[in-house]
Each structure stands twice: as C-alpha cells, then as structure tokens.
C-alpha cells in the first residue's frame, strides 16, 4: 500500500503566557492510500494539533509532512477537514451548505456537483430535508451534512476531529455505521480522532495510541477484524475484546499520568 501521507519527526511548540509548551514531538507515521486510521490518547496530547498541521493550518516546529511525496506548505485542497462542530451556515439550506465548498472552489455549481450532492444526501438518509435550515435539523442530521459537505468536493484525504463527540450514544452508532458505508464506497483515506476506544476499533484498519504531552506515538495497532463490520454488535466478538484489552493497557498509563 503506497503512502499518501508521510509524517516524519513532527513536533509542535507553542508560546503560552511566556512559557514554551511542547504539544507533541517526534511523531512519525505513514498513512496508506484508502486506509482508515484512528488516533486515541489522553486529553492534551496533541491529537488536534496533529490534524491542524496535516491540514496545513499550523506549520510544524520540527519535522515535516509530505502529501504524495511533496512537502505540505499551507492548505491543500486534496485534504478535507471535518470538525467536532458542524459549522453549518444558519442562513443556508442543507443542500446549499453541502454545496458551499464547490461554490468556493469553482465559483458556480455544475450539474455534476448537484448530482453528487443529491447522491450523498440520499446515502446518509437526509432525503426530504434538502431545503431545511440548520435550526430545523437534529444534531446528528447536521453532523451528517457536515461530513458530506467535505465529501462533495472529493478530497483524497479526510481528517476528522471527534466528529461524533457531542452526540448521544444511539446517534453515534448510526453515524459510525453510515461513515463506514461511505468509506467502503468512496475508499477515502481517513484519519479520525476519538476518545472512544470502541469507536476507534470499530472503524479503523489501524489504531494509533499517543502518549501524554508532549504527545508522541506510543504504538500502532492493526485491527484484524474482518470487514464489513457490525458496529452495533462488534463489542461481542473475541477479536474485539482482545484488541480492546491491549489498547486499554497501553492507554491507561498515559491517562493516569495526565490525571
């Protein structure tokens, strides 16, 4: 599997109230084309900082990121970013929110873009809500719109920063299942941050465990659970229990240090 993203010796330091804060250091990872990576770690270990650097929003303090062997220098239109907050514009309908990136990039909406938006809206179960405004949608519906708004312009890589964090347990499971279905069809490269070990295992090809601040990679664990996966019952399988126990042993000491 060829690497679409290569991370080498990445580090980030911030100046906070006159003090240098080391958010992360010496992070190295290759991410394969079409791979689904999840990242777990204690709060403050630099997970979101890592995504911001991969997206080109922050420059690294050390090391480098390469996209298809070219150094990342600023924003890259082939890398999409799904944040925890949906950030839908309240004055635009669901359809117009989904199509917003196309308007920014192309200046107009083509028939092909309209067709792709309609197909994605249908796939995530939002048909019939195209002309509803964000305040008329549930949190789960808004987050589905947030995800397909990134998919609509067809980026090669999608970064996801705890996109299901604010949602209730039932909605989380539904969206996990829909995300896996979309990934199976689109085969985008996804890097997904979560605090939920079950979510991390259910979604991923590999789970990356990060240490406490300054965050670095403690381990990279392959999830040998066959696909397609049943997110509703995956916790019952022996393979899931084995990988969960291994990951929790590695994560527990890092959480304890932070606490």
Write the layout of secondary structure elements.
Layout: E1 3-16, E2 19-32, E3 36-40, H1 47-54, E4 62-67, E5 70-71, E6 79-82, H2 94-98, H3 100-106, H4 111-123, H5 139-151, E7 157-161, H6 169-186, E8 189-193, H7 197-203, E9 206-210, E10 217-222, H8 238-258
Parallel strand pairs: 3-8, 3-9, 6-7, 7-8
Antiparallel strand pairs: 1-2, 1-4, 4-5, 9-10
Q: What does the model show?
A:
The chain is of the alpha/beta class and 259 residues long. It has a domain at 1-78 and 204-259: 3-Layer(aba) Sandwich (Rossmann fold), CATH 3.40.50. Helix content is 36%, strand content 25%. It has 8 helices and 10 strands. The chain has helices at 47-54, 94-98, 100-106, 111-123, 139-151, 169-186, 197-203, 238-258; strands at residues 3-16, 19-32, 36-40, 62-67, 70-71, 79-82, 157-161, 189-193, 206-210, 217-222. Strand 7, helix 6 and strand 8 (189-193) form a beta-alpha-beta unit. Helix 7 packs across helix 8. The longest helix has 21 residues, at 238-258.
